[in-house]
Amino acid sequence: MDRTADDHQDTDRQDGFTGEEIELDKFREECGVFGIHGHADAARLTYLGLYALQHRGQESCGIVSSNGKELRLERAMGHVSEAFDQSRLDRLEGSSAIGHVRYSTAGDVSIREAQPFLVTCQHGQIAVCHNGNLPFANEERRRLELEGAIFSSTSDTEVVLHGVARSHTASVAEAIPEVLRDTEGAFSMLFLTPTELIAIRDPRGFRPLALGRLGDSWVVASETCAFDLIDAQYVRDIEPGEMIVINKEVLRSSHPLPERPVSMCIFEHVYFARPDSLIYGHSVNESRHKMGKRLAQEQPADADLIVPVPDSGTVAAIGYAAQSKTSFRFGLVRNHYVGRTFIEPRQSIRSFGVRIKLNPVRHLIEGRRVVLIDDSIVRGTTSKKIVQMVREAGAKEIHVRISCPPTISPCYYGVDTPNKADLIAAQMSVAEICKFIGADSLGYLSLEGMMEATGISPQKACVACWNERYPTRITAKAETMWERDHEAVTTEG
Q1: d(CA 167, CA 284)
Q2: Are residues 43 and 192 in the same domain?
Q3: CATH of the domain at 162
């Protein structure tokens, strides 16, 4: 989990820097999974499903298909459209498939870490892909290594695969819950064997997983937007603790894992998911619009213009503008065509990393009192540069409004977040953050307002990144760091 800024950089570059570095002031999307069973064009539909889920991970991707007798795997670094061509998809024969897009929250960045993983063991061929994070995986990995186990990656997912392979149960469908029964953490997992597609979600339901139907075929995906692209119909969410086994187009559902209090990640509604998705059965677009309206009620600003920080702040900004009856305009334009790397001019340009992605529309902003709407502030560095750009474009006043509460604690459930010491809201008051980013005022949405906007019961939500109340134990190392940081912050008042 504790990746530094250097981990995000290309190690072989000279004086350029990566497009990923521009967005270090955001939480990172975790991963996305997609699976289909019982369709003659399974691999190509999985390709399309992953394309719809590309926002959840851009480092690597992969697809495993089954023709009923054997599994075939194709993996690559980069985006789905770059990784898969006609010849690669032609090699993925069969009527069932699972796929994965990855952004690592744990482990290294290399083709070895790309999912799905595929192994052959006493149960035959098994492939797996995973959205989530298992905080205790390293401890289990060390135990297995002492027993002679060999790992090909640093991923926590491979630890689960080892457990399944070593199980003495009669089938993969029996081995999976045996291994995951006492596992703490977040997992929405897809397994594929030559004859079965198996989906399982952790008992707390941290990460989303939806079930769909395409004719006689069953489909599963991290988000419903993947169903829309292939004309599949959303059926329902796979429930926390539920396991679904699909074999010969017959679906069997069970709840083999111990019941736990449900703790669904609310950051899915704030930032991660696409606004055209249903997450936990609720519209993301509607949630963000209501967040913006509630933000306008809680944190009004006397202004001439509401401007979103694209793209994640757009829907909340529309809600804010509607509630405040203030003009909404796209005063910041985003360049969607920034590649994975680019070369910085030798003559340094101030705030180049942000400017390559965002540019203010001067004739809209000049002389106006502007409200900038964004979904979150993590480190504060990008927000500071955006405020500076808007100020230089001639804004008379700049009022920053954030459609979630201050982010004060790391996530250990499948989201790449900075250490607590790097979270600006854990170290500064709202007034101090406002001064740091150079705004005339700063306001956050309350926790209560955010939860009301989502329509999700607070008793069924994980909001640890805003209130430090983790639903599960976390690793001893993480607990020590949290206690140290928490004590330091408390002591300093």
Answers
A1: 39
A2: yes
A3: 3.60.20.10
Cβ count near 215 (within 10 Å): 10
Instruction: Kindly write down the DSSP assignment for every residue of 186-249, as one continuous string.
Output: EEEEEEE-SSEEEEEE-TT--S--EEEEETTEEEEESSTHHHHHTTPEEEEEPPTT-EEEEETT
pLDDT at residue 186 is higher than 70 = yes
Domain tally for the chain? Answer: 2
CATH number for 448: 3.40.50.2020
Active site residue 411: no
Phi and psi at 200, nearest 5°, equal: -145, 145
- 8 Å CB contact between 267 and 465: yes
Domain-terminating residue out of 230, 262, 294: 262
Asked if 481 and 414 sit in the same domain, the reply is yes
Q: Does residue 314 share a domain with residue 231?
A: no
Residues 6+ apart with CB under 8 A from 327: 304, 305, 306, 321
Q: Which domain holds residue 232?
A: 23-262
- Cβ-Cβ contacts under 8 Å for 206 (sequence gap 6 or more): 132, 185, 186, 187, 188, 263, 264, 265, 413, 414, 462
The answer on 305 and 244 residing in a single domain is: no
Query: Shortest CA distance to 315 belongs to which of 176, 197, 186, 454?
Result: 454
User: In Å, how far from its chain's centre is CA 187?
Assistant: 13
What are the CA-CA distances from residue 419 to residues 4, 66, 344, 404, 489 (Å)? 9, 41, 28, 19, 13
- Domain-located, residue 411: yes
Q: Which residue, chain included where needed, has tokens 């004060």?
A: 408
Question: Where residue 487 falls among pLDDT bands split at 50, 70, 90?
Answer: very low
What is the predicted pLDDT for the residue at 447?
98
- Rounded CA separation 392/384 (Å): 12
pLDDT at 288: 98
Alpha carbon distance 141, 132 (integer Å):
17
**pLDDT exceeds 80 at position 111:** yes
* The pLDDT of residue 69 is above 70: yes
Which tokens sit at 86?
A: 């006609």
How large is the greatest C-alpha to C-alpha distance in the chain, in angstroms? 72
In a domain, 171, yes or no: yes
203 in a structural domain: yes
User: What is the crossing angle of helices 314-324 and 284-298, to 10°?
Assistant: 50
Angstrom distances, CA of residue 374 to CA of 145, 185, 213, 402, 445: 45, 29, 35, 5, 11
Strand partners, 120: 125
Tell me, yes or no, whether 249 and 297 share the same domain. no
Q: Which two tokens stand for residue 45?
A: 């539909």
247 and 353, same domain (yes or no): no
Tens-digit pLDDT profile for residues 349-377: 666 778 788 999 999 999 999 999 999 99
Query: pTM of the predicted model, to two decimals?
Result: 0.88
Residue 182 and residue 129 in one domain: yes
Same domain membership, residue 176 and residue 42: yes
Residue type, 466: W
